[in-house]
Amino acid sequence: MTATTPGALRLVAVHTKFQLLETIRIPAAVIGNTVFPALALFFFVVPQADVAGNRLWATTAVASLAFFSVCSASMFTHGLGVAEDRESPFDPFVRSLPAGPVPRFVGRILVGLVMALFGMVPLLLVAAFFTEAGVPAPQLLAGVGMLLVGAVPFILLGIGLGYALTAKAAIAIVQVILFPLAFAGGLFMPPQLFPAWMDTVSLATPTRAGRDLLVDALGVEAAHGSSWLVLLGWTVAFGVLAIWAYRRDEGRRFR
Question: Would you say 164 and 245 are in contact if contact means Cβ atoms under 8 Å apart?
Fold first, then answer.
């Protein structure tokens, strides 16, 4: 059965629905991933009148925190979710079904994109009511599209970590990776404030590439020329990691 047949699409839809229900059945985890960026905006940006009251600066701050929300939701949803699934007695049954791994992988990516969009809601509400951030509708749609594209490498990274680690290890490792990447990528501090050496390192990170492409899509500032190559390179690398971790786990548990 090919990926384009109606049967394959139905399998993807079933896996997506199942994994989405599995994710939202723990409201605390979902709320935690979505509320933190909005709180960061409210407590660290809104009180700065010169930033919150400036349309370009406020829009940049909102965009950076929006991308952090996407990274966080993608990595926690899958890094911890996949690891917990592997410890469930129901997981071996699902993986033994003849559908193969592709519908499940695609379903996980789609769930990650849904959770990324869901995480935008509290952040955008705070931005709308307490800052001057704003862009025309076409740029806003382009920004949403860029957020979804930028989420893919972090979804793949989360899947790779989830298949490689236990649940207890996954939650720690995700945090150890996520927050340094967020700082280095300019999601908490404008890259313009970085020293030259840190700016060079930052340009090689997927968080900086995604952040720059997002603000470019919003029409705030131009992205660096290497941003697309960096994001694509990390997407391929994390995709390879996810496939390797899945096959490694498959070989250990289903020999």
Answer: yes
3-class secondary-structure state, position 99: coil
Classify residue 106: in a domain, yes or no: yes
pLDDT tens sequence across 50-64: 887 888 999 999 999
Measured distance CA(138)–CA(55) in Å, rounded: 17
Contacts of 127 (CB under 8 A, 6+ apart): 41, 58, 62, 133
Sign of the alpha-carbon torsion through 65, 71, 73, 79: negative
pLDDT tens for residues 85-125?
Answer: 788 777 777 777 766 677 877 888 888 788 778 878 888 89
| CA-closest candidate to residue 157, choices 251, 64, 77, 43 | 77
Range(s) of the domain holding residue 245 = 8-253
In sequence order, which residues have a C-beta less than 8 Å from that of residue 15 and are 6 or more positions away?
Answer: 99, 103, 104, 106, 107, 108
Does 95 map to a domain?
yes
CA-CA distance, 193 to 226, in Å (whole number)? Answer: 20
Whole-number Å distance between alpha carbons of 8 and 26? 28
* Overall number of domains in the chain: 1
- R_g (Cα) of the chain, nearest Å: 19
* In a domain? residue 225: yes
Q: In whole angstroms, give the CA distance from residue 181 to residue 133.
A: 25
- Residue among 168, 27, 177 nearest 86 (CA): 168
Q: Is residue 33 part of a domain?
A: yes
